[in-house]
Amino acid sequence: MILSDQHRELQRTVQNFVQLEINPNVAEWEKAGHFPIREIFQQLAGLGLLGISKSSDYGGLGLDFSYETVFLEELGGAHCGGVPLSISVQTSMCTPALANFGSQDLKEQFLIPAVRGEMVGAIAVSEPGAGSDVASIKTTAKSDGDDYVINGSKMWITNAPCADFFCTLVNTSEGKAHSNKSLIIIPAKTAGVRIGEKLDKLGMRSSETAPIFFDNVRVPKHFRIGDEGAGFLLQMLQFQEERLAGAALNLKGLENCVSTTIDYVRERHAFKAPLIDNQTIHFALAEMQTEVECLRSLTWRAVEAYVAGEDVTTLASMAKLKAGRLSRSIPDQCLQFWGGMGYIEETVINRAYRDSRLTAIGGGADEVMLGIICKLMGILPGKRKPTA
């Protein structure tokens, strides 16, 4: 993908925002366990960054997803994972289906305020017994005249404590698991919605995460996105953007692991020589940077195909898988080279080690990505690749 001058200008805008508005505050936000999400969202909205690929009819910039990817990649240069995660939930997880399949009324009521930074959104799919296994969700939405009555719970929901609405996957019938689900917008202040205690997490500490409980929550049927029963398909389509976003968000973070480690091992001496003079170390750093570039190429190839209107389920799953793998191996290798300093809470590499571990779990675990890839390759047990 060849970036245009417009891409480059967007790149500089996001770089400046990260350097001036996010990174100087990361240490404070990490200790607090939250960041001023509404203030940051308002600032992002003022730069047009919460609706880059959303239609101009709803306050967006009307650009294609390649521009969104530039934004996400540069956002990943933040010195923590939690703030970029919360922002990407708004732009790439809870609003794509709303923007692509929501009614005019839903877009006016929820999408426009989200793009303007006036509302915070969250995606509510995972449940205590159904994380990556989306088809197994238990939350129900029973028809009652012009309303749905919703009961159940959701788990590990980023932005839940501060969200104004949830894009929620529910069962609207007793039919087959892939055709009995619907996506419904549930306003957070609706009677019967309860947000649980914030979860104490290994990483992503500056983002707020909590369970949600629905007790006879009544919402109008026109809050449904798309047709009844189409929710699973719409969520799978939404996952394409989420997984591409997950890969893009990791690129700069992984590069930061490598670059900060280079700086550290240049200065750190052992046995009367800089650590970087050790061939084991500088060869490993070269290998890691090569892997990041491979991930970047795969991600951008998938984005280019997505912009062209192609089904990128395979490529997006591969990019997400590779991002998950590298987000475990690269921070771990780099932390080893930092030695005892890498084990200290305040260091950038320590935070990267904690935060990046989520990549291989959230948005579909590595094993789920492998299952999708295998299925599309025709190599699942008992399956054969179709012949011409």
Q: Could you explain the architecture of this structure?
A:
There is one protein chain. With 388 residues, the protein is α+β, with helices and mostly antiparallel strands. The chain has three domains: 5-120, Orthogonal Bundle (Butyryl-Coa Dehydrogenase, subunit A, domain 1); 122-229, Beta Barrel (Butyryl-CoA Dehydrogenase, subunit A, domain 2); 233-377, Butyryl-CoA Dehydrogenase, subunit A, domain 3 (Up-down Bundle). 48% of the residues lie in helices and 14% in strands. It has twelve helices and ten strands. The protein has helices at 5-22, 26-32, 37-46, 65-75, 82-93, 96-101, 104-115, 231-267, 279-307, 313-338, 348-355, 366-377; strands spanning 121-124, 140-144, 147-158, 165-171, 181-187, 193-195, 209-220, 224-225, 269-270, 273-274. Helix 4 (65-75) packs parallel to helix 8, helix 8 (231-267) runs parallel beside helix 10 and helix 9 packs antiparallel against helix 10 (313-338). The protein starts with a helix and ends in an 11-residue tail after the last helix. The model has no long low-confidence stretch (mean pLDDT 96).
